[in-house]
Amino acid sequence: MAESFEAASGRGSTSPAQVRRLGKNLTGYNGETIDIRAVLTDCASASRDHGWKTEGMIADSDLVLPAFIRSSTNPSSKPVNIYISAGIHGDEPATPLAARQLLRENRWPAFANLWLCPCLNPTGFIANRRENHQGADLNREYLQPQAREIVAHISWLQSQPSMDLCLCLHEDWESHGFYLYELNPDGLPSASERILSEVSGICPIDSSQTIEGRSAANGVIRPTLDPKTRLQWPEALFLIMHKTRLCYTLEAPSDFPLRSRVDALVIAVRTAINCFALSEW
Ligand SMILES: [Zn+2]
């Protein structure tokens, strides 16, 4: 539960020397779970406290899919549009926890317009499984959406402006450390090495040469497949085809302690945003 996670781990207590693989994830994610309703209540409360607007992509009693929006607080600078999503896989609890931590800490650059979806698959978290309550892997539905969550999410995304930077938060139950996917078709300045350098102070980086069947280098995967040749699109491909020219999918290793995964995702988000600001401004 979220409460025991905080009570047991404290805040900001991660030290890389203490971070050891747990050895729990033998056939899937077997680590801590979260009370997603409580986490989303916390997110809503923190967003209200810090002046965010809430939009309900779905707002039924049995299925709530919130999005939080905050406008730039520096009207004299040209705003940068930044989108962050989490919780599309229900067995990746560090991602909505990282969204909550980001909202609570409220440390955003003044020039940023922000869009944050803290949990795209709430029913998956209730069952502690990757898929939603109907067995759908929501992160395969962005070309041909069927699930209500993704139909609503795509419709909402289409009503938002283009984004300068998109960050999709994930976890991988099999990985040996943190890694990321960079989708950057125009060759914009890359933040990947810097992100991984910052994360390496918190948790290990997966240095495998192949991750998830794709060629990787020092924790970075730069997919070269033409999205048009793929029959199923994850969220990141939809974003790169319709909303942005720069997208990172951040993958925390879920066989490591939850506290370090949350901290790793939070620092990865902050570093990506800061690098983008430095390259553009
Ligand atoms: Zn995932």
Q: Which hetero compounds are present in the coordinates?
A: zinc ion
Order of helices and strands: HHEEEHEHHEEHEEEHEH
Main beta sheet, described? 8 strands, mixed
Number of strands: 10
**Share of residues in strands:** 15-25%
Classification by helices and strands? alpha/beta
Which residues form runs of ≥5 with pLDDT under 50? Answer: 7-13
The amount of helix comes to 25-40%
* Alpha carbon gyration radius: 17 Å
Strand order, main sheet: write it out. Answer: 1-2-4-3-5-10-6-9
Straight-line N-to-C gap: 41 Å
Mean pLDDT: 92
Helices, by number, come to 8
The gross shape turns out to be globular
Describe this structure in words.
It contains 8 helices and 10 strands. With 281 residues, the chain is an alpha/beta fold. The longest helix has 23 residues, at 258-280. The structure holds zinc ion. Zinc ion is lined by residues 89, 92, 170.
What secondary-structure arrangement, pairings included, does this model have?
Blueprint: H1 2-9, H2 36-49, E1 53-59, E2 64-70, E3 80-85, H3 94-105, E4 112-117, H4 122-127, H5 148-158, E5 165-172, E6 179-183, H6 192-199, E7 210-211, E8 214-215, E9 220-221, H7 235-242, E10 247-253, H8 258-280
Parallel strand pairs: 3-4, 3-5, 5-10, 6-9
Antiparallel strand pairs: 1-2, 2-4, 6-10, 7-8
Helix pairs in contact: 2-3, 3-8, 6-8
The structure holds zinc ion.
